[in-house]
Amino acid sequence: RRPPAGQDSYRAVQVKEKFGTLRFYMRGETNAMEQAIGQAESESSKTCESCGQTGKLRPGGWLVTLCDSCYTLHQKEKRWP
Question: pTM for the complete prediction?
Answer without folding.
Answer: 0.73
